[in-house]
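Hi there,

I know you've been waiting on this one. I reran it after we fixed the sequence typo, so this is the corrected version. Both the input and the resulting structure follow.
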Amino acid sequence: MTDQLTVIVLAAGGGTRMKSKTPKVLHRVAGRSMVGHVLGAVSALEPRGVVVVVGHQRELVGPHVSETMPAAVLAVQEEQLGTGHAVRVALEALGSGPQGTVLIAYGDTPLLEGETLRGFVDFHTGAGAAVSILSGLVDDPHGYGRVVRDPAGAVRAIVEEKDATDEQRAITEINSGILAFDAGFLVDAVARIDNANAKGEYYLTDAIGLAREAGLSVAAQPIDDVWQTEGANDRAQLAALGAEMNRRIVTRWMRDGVTVMDPATTWIEADVELAPDVTILPGVQLLGATKVDEDAVIGPDSTLQDCEIGAGARVVRTHGQLAVIGADANVGPFSYLRPGTQLAASGKIGAFVETKNAVIGEGAKVPHLSYVGDAEIGEGTNIGAGTIFANYDGVDKHRTKVGRHARTGSNNTFVAPVEIGDGASTAGGTVVRHDVPAGALAVSAGQQRNLPGWAQARRSGTAQARAAAEAGGADHGELSENGPGLGSDPGDRAES
């Protein structure tokens, strides 16, 4: 912990240009809120205390801050009267005066890094300045406060856009808003800042002029990576920050030994963990707390949120959430893994399979065209194509258990609650309503009947009837007009 450092994060603004019911600082970039990213960077400094100033929609921002950083002190700025006023509110919330250095950061700069802040604090301390500015050199300084220096290069003032002269607007060194203060000077300065400016606000940057008047030193450290100080005032800027952060995340993982086939179509959020020798194919989104172990291959065209993927697993064209996939397992294509899915090592969830709250054992397979909900499937079992685990009776959900090394037929329906024993089988088309003992075969379909000559009798004059006759199909003989299966099914009357 840095005993001589206090951090104030300003997060009270309304962000009206976002045009959103969500507070600006709670808009998400790479899976975290913007203020969450800033608090993460601040945490790396291990400061003595952190104060977060909230105001607009504080009933939403405050709880989020407390959940993200429980030790943070919340200071409420009832009216947003400028940064100087916000810092005054923060100092009042601290109770006792801060010691050493006070760092001011903003809650909408998601690319800010703890290493950068640490370097800036060290720069400020080494300079012995009353105020230090984290500045940046940009091609287009529009909208930013300009860092005004004297002919000797010393910082003279920061002038806001609306208050700047034409000459000052041409300056390309801008104030990032991130400032470091000697604590004693800051306490004195915020009490003296007035609102005699175009917007009628209390600018924290006016403290620089007060320091100069008192003959105190003002320093500025230009940052090479200006993206770290960029904020988002509208959705377009938010998207630009998100794209840049994703580029950095993907690049970092590639440098750590992950193969990313197409970085332009790959999105990886901040809390994702990837092992070396993972391969990411085009069109993949890895979200939330997803973790992928070595030699796994993800994609193409897959979205995984809060999933765990084991070593050597293969996940193809799949959407998954809160699912666990074991080592060397195979999933997809076109699988939908809902929360609670657990596929053990060497198992398979195949094409057009949906699973939910399902535990599928080692080496077990659900190859295709099935719904598996609220189920337990034992090791080595194979589930036939088109199987439905009917888990809902209209009121409650029930579980189905299929034992080890069972073999179930195609187009089965398991009406839960039901249990199929170890080594049991079910015939094709079976509806299982009662438990099946170990090693037994369950059959529910009636015996097949063939009605000779049906096509000629009921499809006379059609291509179907002609084909049957040409193939030597039996004449219809004495078929009853009202015999079973003779055209009574609406599907039998459909023309191709």
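Quick highlight: Residues 235-255 form the longest helix (21 residues).

Best,
R. S.
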